[in-house]
Amino acid sequence: MARLTDRQDAYGHALWDYHHGRPGHEVDERIDGHVGAVDVSDYFAPLDQWPARQRTGVKLARGRVLDVGCGAGRVALHLQEKGLDALGIDVSPLAIDVCRLRGLRHAQVLSITELSRKLGVFDTVMVFGNNFGLLGGRRRARWLLRRLHGMTSDGARIIAETVDPYDTDDPSHLAYHELNRRAGRMAGQIRLRVRYQGYATPWFDYLFVSREEMAELLDGTGWAVGRFIDRPGEPAYVAVIEKDTVNGDLRA
């Protein structure tokens, strides 16, 4: 998704209102009409309210950190408090404004597709809050993973959260998987937009993958799964993705 205009910045307006004492919900609308509501307070939650997989995963961050899709800055702010150099990026100008108001020293309006070595070299890339989904689809994911390989240090890692889309018996989700397959898309590659009050983002792709699909996407990009952090019965999981320095420089 490209950087958002004010009328498109539904997510940012929800965060801005919550930060200024007006709680609300963002609405995630899938292109087939399925909708879900997200309490934006989750984006401001302190560490002790994070899911266990996130609390474990964030401990593995080290060195200079890039927080992709930083939202209200909860991850980057936590790492900054721990003494790490953390840069938060987001397509939402108001989200970045909220990050700065909350004390994040390094925050920038930037799309994941605009990432480049101009930002410098990172030791850890955080993609929490299911933001592995920002990789969009198979082709774009592999391109972005190669790009991240070229802007990270030897021994770098990506700490990524997603949801296994197949861990469901919801008929609407299963039907959507089948629509995707018939269209030649990955089953968990959803098309959605975010709405809040009179604001709405453009439609964009957001990718959910199984553990096996994640390993497949990583193959040949210079990255490999080191471990998964999960719990039985929970579809969401965190993958600790390690840089493969054996296969050489794959910078894009």
In the CATH hierarchy, the architecture is: 3-Layer(aba) Sandwich
Mean pLDDT: 95
Q: What can be said about the biggest beta sheet?
A: 7 strands, mixed
Strand content of the residues, in percent? 25-35%
Structural class: alpha/beta
Distance between the termini: 20 Å
Summarize the structure.
The chain has helices at 10-19, 52-58, 74-81, 93-101, 138-150, 171-182, 211-218, and strands at residues 25-30, 35-39, 64-68, 85-90, 107-109, 122-127, 152-163, 189-196, 199-200, 204-207, 223-229, 236-243.
Describe this structure in words.
This protein has 252 residues and is α/β, with parallel strands linked by helices. The protein is globular. The chain starts with 9 loop residues before the first helix and ends in a 9-residue tail after the last strand. It has one domain: Vaccinia Virus protein VP39 (Rossmann fold, 3-Layer(aba) Sandwich). The longest helix is centred in the middle third of the chain and has 13 residues.
Could you give the topology of this structure?
Layout: H1 10-19, E1 25-30, E2 35-39, H2 52-58, E3 64-68, H3 74-81, E4 85-90, H4 93-101, E5 107-109, E6 122-127, H5 138-150, E7 152-163, H6 171-182, E8 189-196, E9 199-200, E10 204-207, H7 211-218, E11 223-229, E12 236-243
Parallel strand pairs: 3-4, 3-6, 4-5, 6-7
Antiparallel strand pairs: 1-2, 1-8, 7-12, 8-9, 8-10, 11-12
Helix pairs in contact: 1-4
